[in-house]
Write a structure and sequence with these properties.
Number of helices: 4
Helix content: 25-40%
């Protein structure tokens, strides 16, 4: 079978109440009944690691654009690049603007990209709940 399997897991508690979850091969999931029925992720599948990008490859370049709150996606791409050895490549060229520059800088610094993504998602939720938080940039950057 494919190691890139993705699918969905569905169930019904009662008519018209569906339980739906995105599942990935090698992840662990559980049916939880408290406080309401839901499908919970118990553990994530291991991330692949390699040294594919660590070799000296002249001309290898990556550009990340300005992204606003979508920077969480760039953190995911940066995490994948980290997992494949980009920080060890002496010839890689990187360019980014705004959120893209921040994503690339934190990637090359060796930051925990998953923690940054989770913080970004939490911050976006906070701003959506309280609109005045959108002017509180100092909290989100520092």
């Amino acid at each position: 079978g494919s190691s890139n399997f993705r699918g969905s897991l569905e169930g019904r508690q009662r008519p018209f109440e569906e339980l739906v979850a995105n599942v990935v091969r090698n992840g662990t999931y559980a049916l939880v009944s408290e406080p309401q029925f839901r499908i919970a992720e118990v553990s994530k599948p291991p991330r692949p690691h390699s040294s594919l990008l660590a070799i000296d490859t002249p001309g290898l370049s990556f550009a990340f654009s300005a992204s606003g709150w979508l920077m969480a996606y760039e953190f995911g791409a940066a995490h994948s690049l980290q997992n494949h050895g980009i920080m060890k490549n002496p010839s890689v060229r990187l360019v980014g603007s705004s959120g893209g520059a921040l994503s690339l800088w934190t990637m090359m610094y060796g930051s925990d990209m998953v923690a940054l993504k989770d913080f970004m998602k939490e911050s976006a939720s906070r701003v959506h709940e309280e609109a005045w938080q959108s002017v509180n940039l100092r909290y989100f950057v520092l």
